[in-house]
Amino acid sequence: MKTLSWLGLTLLTLAHAFYLPATDDSLVNTPPPTPADYGLGWLHGSDLPATDDSLVSTPPPTPADYGLDWLHGTDHHNPFGFTCPEGWTMHSTQCLLFVAQNMTWVEARDNCASKGHGSLAAVYDSTQVDEISEEMKKAGLHGGTVWVGGSKTSGDPDWSWDYSIMDQFAEFCSGEPADDENCLQITFNEKNSGCLEAQRCDMQLPSVCAILLY
Predict the structure, then answer these.
(1) d(CA 140, CA 162)
(2) Pairing of strands 144-151, 183-188
(3) Which of 20, 96, 154, 173 to pair with 72, CA 20 to 30 A apart?
């Protein structure tokens, strides 16, 4: 009797082994593929759509994206929230203030600094030339010479701007500076329509103050 029971159990086990259906792979919980499963060409190896560029977060523009003339590049909309103190005029790279009082270059520089983060104006290209001319005309001055922020030391041919790290300069007037001409003026007359010119720093001239916007 025990032998039959053992034999019946063996046959029953074999029957299950032969007649049970194979495992359905669709029911197996397989982890989703990762980019590493496709190698370097994962985007092509998968059927995933390419990223929609319209959904990518693009950083907002900065003044530098428009160059030195951001104010005109943005149609005067001022999207960056720049402001100028009362009495100053906003222009492309700086707020400007014309000072009619005659001073030496050092006096003019110190006067600008006393007005709160001010300096003598930098003149990078024709844009700033036109803006300084505009400020002079508003003050009733249609020509002449005024101090701007460039200076150098005797024997050194390299000019630098007061409080500006940029080394770009508008057009210079013709002629080489003398050894004692270490400060820059901008000249407007019948011959020169706004060029930079070396001058002795102890000369008494009007000036244009500036507050850099960026």
Answers:
(1) 26
(2) antiparallel
(3) 173
Amino acid at 35: P
Q: What angle do CA 94, 132, 66 make, to 5 degrees?
A: 45
Do residues 95 and 89 touch, judged by C-beta distance below 8 A? yes
**Token pair belonging to 165:** 């790290």
Report residue 39: phi and psi, to 5°: 75, -155
In this predicted structure, the answer to whether residue 132 has a pLDDT above a threshold of 90 is yes
Amino acid at 170: A
Burial 94-127 (b: 16+ CB within 10 A, else e): bbbbbbeeebbbebbbebbeeeeebbbbbbbbeb
Q: Tell me the pLDDT tens digit for each residue of 51-74.
A: 555 555 556 555 555 554 544 444
28 DSSP 8-state letter? S
pLDDT, average across residues 125-136 = 94
| Phi, psi angles (nearest 5°) of residue 187 | -115, 130
Which strand (E) or helix (H) includes residue 111?
Answer: helix 105-113
Integer angstrom CA distances of residue 52 from 44, 46, 57, 129, 194: 16, 16, 11, 45, 50
Vertex 195 angle, CA 180 and 149, to 5°? 60
Residue 27 and residue 25: Cα distance in Å, rounded?
Answer: 5
Q: Which residues contact 51 (CB under 8 A, 6 or more apart)?
A: none
Cβ neighbours of residue 99 closer than 8 Å, sequence gap 6 or more: 108, 111, 112, 206, 207, 208, 209
